[in-house]
Amino acid sequence: MSKAIYPGSFDPVTLGHMDVIRRAAGIFDEVVICVLNNVNKSALFSVQDRVKILQEATKDIENVVVESYSGLLTQYAKEKHIHVVVRGLRAVTDFEYELQNAQTNRKLSGGYLDTMFLTTSLEYAYLSSSTVKEIASFGGDVSDCVPDFVANLLYEKYNKKS
Ligand code: ADP
Q1: Angle 25-27-33 from CA coordinates, rounded to 5°
Q2: Is any atom of ligand 1 closer than 6 Å to the C-beta of 14?
Q3: For the chain, which terminus, N or C, has the lower number of CB atoms within 10 Å?
Q4: pLDDT of amino acid 41
Q5: Of 9, 50, 87, 90, which is the active-site residue?
Q6: What's the gap in Å between 146 CA and the centre of ligand 1?
Q7: Is residue 134 part of a domain?
């Protein structure tokens, strides 16, 4: 059975993430989405909330499971016996960071972990969780960026009317 981990902050999940999730689910028998705490980013939603949001957003994709982990991705991958990581590439700007991450994970795991990149569908290339949060914080329309229920959760967080 082929499996892959799709790790990220997902604060919150966007339609760009959903695109990568659906496509990865079409390639692998099982995709484990792993919510990790990125120490370089301050989060709007708690890890538990992000897991619940992702579970709701992916409930119609049967070969996807959602988990969280607070340690190193390489450790998690070994515990789960999964040696492929999926990441999304939006633009050249993602490339250096993603290349460094992929190479670090490969080195740290002693060659166990490989990273596979899915290039984003063009309509989502501009999307990031941070942009979506910024737009929602000013009450802007994020309905084209995130699943509808996530848009409502964002407006609730920022006390903006949906
Ligand atoms: P991280 O903090 O680990 O970068 P993110 O939640 O920001 O976590 O992103 C997780 C993964 O999803 C990354 O590989 C990122 O490049 C990818 N991603 C983010 N937004 C999009 C998008 N709009 N389209 C495709 N991939 C995306």
Answers
A1: 35
A2: yes
A3: N
A4: 77
A5: 90
A6: 13
A7: no
**Which CATH number covers residue 91?**
3.40.50.620
Q: What is the pLDDT of residue 103?
A: 97
Q: Closest Cα to atom 7, ligand 1: which residue?
A: 9
> Which pLDDT belongs to residue 161?
57
**Catalytic annotation on 50?**
no
94 lines ligand 1 (CB under 6 A): yes
Does residue 23 have an active-site annotation?
Answer: no
Q: What is the separation of C-alpha 23 from the centre of its chain, rounded to a whole number of angstroms?
A: 13
Ranges in the chain, pLDDT < 70: 160-162
Task: State the residue range of the domain holding 21.
Answer: 3-122
Under 8 Å CB-to-CB from 27, ≥6 apart: which residues? 2, 4
pTM of the model: 0.94
pLDDT recorded at residue 71: 92
Distance 98 CA to ligand 1 centre (A): 10
- One-letter-per-residue 3-state SS of 124-137: HCCCCHHHHHHHHH
CA 58 to chain centre: 12
Six token digits for residue 137: 């914080």
Q: Tell me the per-residue pLDDT of 71-97, one tens digit each, with 9 for 90 and over.
A: 999 999 999 999 999 999 998 888 999
In this prediction, residue 150 carries a pLDDT of: 98
